[in-house]
Design the sequence.
């Protein structure tokens, strides 16, 4: 059995032009990012016949899945990106570059500002991998998001799959995992 992980097409909404932003400006940017169009590109699916395709319900992932897979999509919230929230509410500006770092740190340490805990994400990933493996032993394509893919990789490796290290997953690239 093969499971292919693909990160959605690249989002057209870039980073804020301001170097220093407030939490409310960060929230606004995140909303724009979530609603952004994507840059469609070719995806090399390795010449593999994919019998199933699971997709995040976020529009950018659904759009990607629709373009690269010809069959019926299995859309699920379990493949949605890990939500992020500003770690403080005061209206002070900090460098934009610090937001991802601080939010990831807050999330890693289960800070109260982050509503979905790491253990919640791990359970969510275990549930979707259970579902994929229970529904069939056919090749399955999974179109999702970069952060979630790193947890998906960890779960697949734990279950006896072999595949590449991801680092920061590239958009529109297949990462192939095979059961050993």
Sequence:
């Amino acid at each position: 059995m093969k499971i292919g992980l693909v990160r959605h097409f690249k989002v057209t909404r870039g980073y804020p032009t301001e170097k220093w932003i407030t939490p409310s400006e960060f929230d606004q940017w995140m909303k724009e990012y979530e609603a952004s169009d994507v840059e469609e590109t070719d995806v090399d699916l390795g010449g593999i016949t994919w019998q199933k395709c699971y997709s995040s319900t976020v529009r950018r992932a659904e759009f990607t899945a629709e373009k690269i897979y010809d069959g019926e999509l299995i859309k699920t919230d379990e493949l949605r990106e890990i939500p992020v929230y500003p770690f403080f509410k005061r209206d002070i500006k900090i460098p934009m570059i610090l937001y991802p770092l601080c939010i990831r740190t807050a999330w890693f340490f289960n800070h109260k500002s982050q509503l979905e805990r790491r253990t919640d994400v791990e359970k969510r990933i275990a549930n979707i991998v259970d579902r994929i493996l229970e529904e069939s032993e056919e090749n399955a394509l999974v179109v999702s998001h970069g952060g979630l893919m790193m947890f998906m990789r960890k779960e697949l490796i734990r279950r006896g799959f072999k595949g590449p290290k991801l680092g920061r997953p590239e958009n529109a690239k297949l990462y192939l995992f095979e059961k050993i």
The longest strand covers residues 2-7. Helices lie at 23-35, 59-68, 98-108, 118-135, 146-158. The longest helix spans residues 118-135.
